[in-house]
Amino acid sequence: MAFADSESTGGVRQGTPPAAVKILVAGGFGVGKTTLVGAVSEVTPLRTEEYLTVASEGVDDMGGVEEKTTTTVAMDFGRITINPQIVVYLFGTPGQERFWFMWNDLVQGALGAVVLADTRRLETSFASIDFFESRRIPFVIGVNCFYGHSDRSEQEVRDALTLGPEVPLVMGDMRRTEVGRELLLALVEHLLVVMSTT
Fold first, then answer.
1. Which helix (H) or strand (E) holds 26?
2. Which residue range(s) make up the domain with 45?
């Protein structure tokens, strides 16, 4: 069996499959989960979006996202190769409360999570944070600063979400690929720290 030299492949033996890392992308309704998955995925993402109908009136909280016309009803799926050793599979969760029952299935096998937050509606992130904390799943926070605008400082967001200093927090426009990648790298680094101390 041939071995590649360390300079050309980083010391990885040819034919060795990369480690698969399952990550959930969660957060409230309309915070940008589908957009984040689409921005970073190296494959065309699988989306299960449907148009909002009058049936959702009075059921889904549209406060702050009145212009939204579609919603995820099952999950989003994307893939990103971090390096030759690590491939991340992203599973975006539905944001509306009526679909939260699906989280218990989606979380199976997940090593970590991204929780997206919108400073205009930080309270929509509480349920996701509680979910991952109760299951002891490491997570990072991505504060979606739409159009580069943020009306809260990092410390204000940490205080509002009662986050400890060990939880990584990235602020930026998550629709931009480079910001989404920065967020995922922060999670991978956080997972490596967590695994080294357990």
1. strand 19-27
2. 20-196
